[in-house]
Amino acid sequence: MGDCDLLIVDDQPGIRRLLYEVLSEDGYRVEAVAGGREAIDKAVLLRPRLILLDMKMPGMNGLETLIELNKVYKDATAVILMTAYGELEIVMQAQKLGVNHYINKPFDLEDIRALIKSLIPDGAEIDRSRDIV
């Protein structure tokens, strides 16, 4: 599909670095950015197959990023929303904006790996179902 398998969007450098290293070692082409505006620019440029998007970030939160992304980026990209704040209202808004899965922080790396593999298996189309983890 694009020049990148996974785009990680998280303002916490430790989480960004951990996910980048682990998922790169798993063979994915990974890019990582710290905020929403940068994520939109990278998504348009690199056309990732999946975006791991943090909910709470300074400047532009995850939902705001999704709204803007939906305006300029039309490719069918899977989105996993990551947050430490498991509010039902946020989950419902995220689903309406096209989030495939919602995962709470702290998360288990094996759960993230399995979820990514289920959303972007080699040669398969992206599953656009709306599930919550």
UniProtKB/TrEMBL annotation:
SMART domains per UniProt: REC (SM00448)
Keyword Phosphoprotein: yes
4-aspartylphosphate carried by residues: 54
InterPro entries, sorted: Bact_response_regulator (IPR050595), CheY-like_superfamily (IPR011006), Sig_transdc_resp-reg_receiver (IPR001789)
Any Gene Ontology biological process: phosphorelay signal transduction system
Pfam families noted in UniProt: Response_reg (PF00072)
Domain of life: Bacteria
UniProt domain Response regulatory: residue ranges: 5-120
Keyword tags: Phosphoprotein
Known function: May play the central regulatory role in sporulation. It may be an element of the effector pathway responsible for the activation of sporulation genes in response to nutritional stress. Spo0A may act in concert with spo0H (a sigma factor) to control the expression of some genes that are critical to the sporulation process.
Name of the protein in its database record: Stage 0 sporulation protein A homolog
Highest classification ranks of the organism: Bacteria, Bacillati, Bacillota, Clostridia, Eubacteriales
